[in-house]
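debug: dumping io for the single-chain case to check the tokenizer round-trip. Nothing else runs in this session.
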Amino acid sequence: MQHLYDIDVQVPMRDGVALAANVWHPVEGTAPTLLLRLPYSKESTILGHGAGPHVPALLEAGYALVVQDCRGTYRSAGEFVPHMADRNDGEDTVAWITDQPWSDGTVGMYGVSYSGMVQWETAVTGAPGLKAIAPTFTSIDNYEAPWYSPGGALSLSLVTLWNVTMYAADAQRALALGHDTSSQLQEFGQAALSHEALNDVLPTAEVPVLKAYGKWWDDWMAHPSHDGYWDAMELTPELKNVTAPALNIGGWYDLYIGQTLRTYTTARRKAGTAQARDGQRLIVGPWDHISVSGVYADRSFGPPADAQMMGLTDLHVKFFDRWLRGDTTALDGVAPVKIFVMGIDQWRDEQEWPLPNTKWTDFHLTSTGHANTADGDGVLTTEAPAGAGLETYLYDPRRPVPSAGGASMPVTPGFCGPVDQRTVTAREDVLCFATPVLDEAVEVTGPVSLTLYVSSSAVDTDFTAKLVDVFPDGKAINLCDGILRTRYRGGLATEELMEPGTVYEITVDMTGTSNVFLPGHRIRVDISSSNFPRYDRNTNTGGVIAHESEEQMVPAINHIHHGPDHPSRLVLPIIDRKDQS
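debug: decoded output
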């Protein structure tokens, strides 16, 4: 199929604002159309993202393509405020496409990160022409991911970097329109070059370059709980309006992994039609938010891990062929769930998530009171311990545990992805509980959580957890992790401070993983009270953390209780492949 390429096509919205789009459409006849909406410039599309489909392949497959700058970004008119206009704008754009003479009336959407969010925001409108979406590395609850977290801590390193980047783009756009924003541009440029320093500024809400520009930064800092501000953006209650099947794509080290997995399972239950529910699909690779090669300094998952080598573009095309073209054979032989199993470093096809043969297994924490550091005496055991125990450490927010790997942003070496934890586990404020050396392989595939019985000298503090694969040579690779701000132990909408010295049961959501712990390895969980600057530091005062200074911080003496009356435990989804033979 031959295409015409039109630049800066003005697409009218219901309020009269026009959004700019680049359009590839057939010279003759009609075609199904794929829509990509993004706030990062439509001109960058041809470069693409490794987790997204290649544009030439989509055109070769016979699709029309519309790539649009979101409202208030780059060539589109209006004001950009994250998420505020994307439902209406997405719905209006789909309607505009279906009304074009080159459109066959069917539309699919694809895209990564924010471009995934706008897909769900469009899908919940029930737009009639929208037949399928392929959201990658994204969320339907913007509080839980990416801006805060499932445990209530602010995703600090992400929000500082993303906001300074978006504010810089906004100031650049204003300058092009004749406004004198040159001094602001210079400030943003300097801040972007040394963005790590932004995370050290206290109070967090007063980071000068962000506070001065205002806009949504002030709103995010003013709403640290999952209150009505965030409820208005959450899409979970509106999944009942979704009629489009979704190809959900995630990465084990992507900052959205928890939301990717949860969105898939929730849409399987709550989407508005049987077709949308049954048409949900899931792909998860050993990827972070930017890199999809599967190659990291401390861990390489082999050539098959690469997104394009495993055929991700082709899977997009097959998915859209099924739902836009009505080709009922397009997905023949393609499993509804495709996950990369680390450890054995292989792709595996599954029918469901979580896996139906999962054995949820408690690994109890036990020690003689000296689990501090990786050389301590902390043990994980499937046998419930007979005696009571107590672990104690000092959490000083002025001396936080530095972030080492994980589902983080920015994706700099040592900060994101699989990283050897020996860089942080020599600290006394890191507790390590490990199994004995394994005699046989143990597969862990599914959601992971840690239940703890805790007490503290403070009225509020944080607890962090990492699942770690310890290799025979001592290398310790993180798999998944989580954090809980204890004021949110009863839910993210309501704050409830602790009584110092009182024991509380809490659960840390560690998202999920798929890993085979090989013979000679050990399973370990690392526990502390900070992961900085991935998350902001809890000041331990019970106050509004974003508005507190370093002088207001207080240290906390934190305790982990374990034993018969306080069964602290790591809950792992064990998959016994012998049962399937």
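debug: round-trip ok. The chain has twelve helices and 21 strands.
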